[in-house]
């Protein structure tokens, strides 16, 4: 059995900026849970036992994606063919360290449309403040590593994984429990390379927030820029954010002019309150479903965690169920893949409401 076949995961992409943008959207907590399946993997973080966020990274985001769960537990291979639960591999990583490794050449924060000349300058250090991790990250320019030692066989091997002159490429591999997550990062097939080994841990139980779609009391789809601008303009010292939804106004011009806004955000802090209204305009709210007036309050610092995902996404789906659980789903722009195909991925955030007394 070859080294590649013995690994649980082998994934490569010639330009990892889209992958980095997905991870950046949930990079507000250092310890992240990774769950790998044949369809891709998820990266989940949690904060204060009332906020979770997950980046859904599908296999078609990569140029190469090979998942071999049998490599992690060969003795159980004959028993797991029909067991869907055993078909996933889970572990935890220091997410800040992973982001630092991706940005080792300063190119992780550049937009996919950035030219090659601009890419040679130092990129945006957006995640440098989150790089302090509990794991051990190791990088070197010679490409030496335990799990990927054979990957340092020269530029001839790099050409198999990375398209020359197409940006910063990445090859990621995971050999199973007890092994590190190994990244091989190369600016070009003939340029500098770095191999990073990131410590992995056994997964711990995570907060499970189940959104009840059948009990949805508010559903809104809007451009991410509208919500991003609103949250960015609020005072960082804001303590609470109340989301207020109203049903559509009755027929008649007079009724529509005096009707409350379909969506209102009310921010309350030490120095007063601020209200922002979203009109009943399809150019602002593409979809707004609300049968009766609702109002739920959340801690602003938790909702503001969505800003990173809002910066990279195109549209946002905002949903609230009858218990106040907030679901924010961010549709990420889809890069064009070879052959004209587009790969889509998304980020979802769930937040529990405050208990008003």
Task: Fill in the keyword field for this structure.
357 residues, alpha+beta, 9-stranded antiparallel beta sheet, 6-stranded antiparallel beta sheet, 9 helices
Task: Give the spatial strand order of the biggest sheet.
Answer: 6-2-3-4-19-18-17-11-15
Compressed to H and E, one letter per element, the order equals HEHEEEEEHHEHEEEEHEHEEEEHHEEE
Unreliable residue stretches: 1-5, 75-85, 113-165
Shape: elongated
Mean pLDDT: 80
Helix proportion range: 10-25%
Count of discrete alpha- or pi-helical segments spanning 4 or more residues: 9
Q: Classify the beta-strand content into a percent band.
A: 25-35%
Task: Describe the fold and architecture.
It contains nine helices and 19 strands. The strands form three sheets. A nine-stranded antiparallel beta sheet has the order 6-2-3-4-19-18-17-11-15. The longest helix has 10 residues.
